[in-house]
């Protein structure tokens, strides 16, 4: 019996590979989109933000401000003139510019100095630059005030005393400032929550893997309808093969094809873009394996309910894309309304994305795989039972 099931499963896979359109749709396209979006997210995450820097003061103080801003790894400063900076921001070629006015050095020694920030109001990322500049301004202000206090008790000439005192105070910020923040990374608790969301390459890798498994199962399930239209299934009824064996072979073939695609997409996300799929391989296997069976059952059920291969071809992208959108494959489910999160709880994609996010993005371990896996296996059992009972061989 197992030999017959394996033979039928292999036949189902051959039918998929024989159709170039199906191969492109369920194998080539998922890989291409995963690579495209993964590269886009990876590039966006690693590329520093460009900041225009205008130094009209040209003193040691303004130079020091430039060095402090340059030390921020998230920023890439470009030296320009004031007119150039204004024009580029007005034309949309740049989002933010930092301007050190000509009076900056004299202002530090006197009543106060200013640092100007020019930004495009449409750029939200420029607000982060403003925060960085405010941090630099705080350091410079502290240096200047400390230097003024030293100058009052000094017998040296005021300018020389201020310069020396300022330089000495500024050195005391390295390697750590007088007051600094200590960062401690705390792993998310075992309680499922919204504090950590899948973003960037992690979001795209999880979402596309879950989404395109559906495309694979529906594409393979279409082969059942093709065989029915060609009369192959009807001829199997007179062969020494039971209906149960035939259905087991078809389901096994669909599940194997989907599992192979899942393994490929997981490896691409892990090896090419550093998505931490390897955090808990057993937990990932449980959720993905359960989801593959649930997607297989859903595809078999739909193939049993429609009348032709053409109807299946029309229904599969609508169902797959709809479930992907409802389940959080295209955006974090945490950003949608509570009602839509409730709807996601009734979809296999929602449970798959939620379980994989808990494991891969939140590092919650195998405990986070239990509930999604049980629910997905229940969905698989129900849909396979319906599909096997309703499917007509002729």
Could you outline the blueprint of secondary structure elements for this entry?
Blueprint: H1 2-18, H2 20-46, E1 49-55, H3 60-70, E2 75-79, H4 82-90, E3 96-100, H5 104-109, E4 116-119, H6 126-152, H7 158-171, H8 200-230, H9 232-236, H10 243-273, H11 281-305, H12 309-327, H13 338-344, H14 348-361, H15 367-390
Parallel strand pairs: 1-2, 1-3
Antiparallel strand pairs: 3-4
Helix pairs in contact: 1-8, 1-10, 2-8, 2-10, 6-7, 8-10, 8-11, 8-12, 8-14, 10-11, 11-14, 11-15, 12-14, 14-15
Short description:
This protein is mostly helical. It folds into 2 domains: 234 residues, no CATH class; 123 residues, abc type-2 transporter like fold.
Order the strands across the largest sheet as they lie in space. 2-1-3-4
Largest sheet: 4 strands, mixed
Beta-strand proportion:
5-15%
Structural category is mainly alpha
Share in helix: 55-70%
- Compute the number of strand runs: 4
Overall average pLDDT:
80
Separation, N- and C-terminal Cα atoms: 23 Å
**Which quaternary structure do these chains form?**
single chain
Tell me the series of helices and strands, N- to C-terminal: HHEHEHEHEHHHHHHHHHH
Tally of individual helices = 15
The low-confidence runs, each spanning 5 or more residues with pLDDT under 50, are 185-195
Q: Please state the CA-atom Rg, rounded to the nearest Å.
A: 31 Å
Integer tally of domains:
2
Shape: elongated
